[in-house]
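Contributing new records

If you add data, match the layout below exactly. Sequence lines come first and carry their own label; structure lines follow with theirs. Keep one chain per record. Anything else will be rejected by the validation script.
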Amino acid sequence: QVQLVESGGGLVQPGGSMRLSCAASGSIFSTNIMGWYRQAPGKQRELVATITRGGTTNYADSVKGRFTISGDNTKNTVYLQMSSLKPEDTAVYYCRILSSAYNYWGQGTQVTVSS
């Protein structure tokens, strides 16, 4: 069993910045991928960014150059630094941890970009 605890999120003005954190605990394999996904109202959940324990990252085209994903393996924590936020970034952001043996999601945190 793996638990994911997300923090961060809230209201930010367009052009602003925000950081999300996701801490994993439990029976975590040494090989896994952690990442962030988001779901806006009326839309499907989509990938935002992922990172392997080795540090390989992957980003959605819509966030490249604006968002940065990073991880702390000693804390089993992944971060999403979001900059130059746009109203279209408004969504519920979900953390995910994936390995060959499991696939868990966090409860989600709301990010609203509005003036």
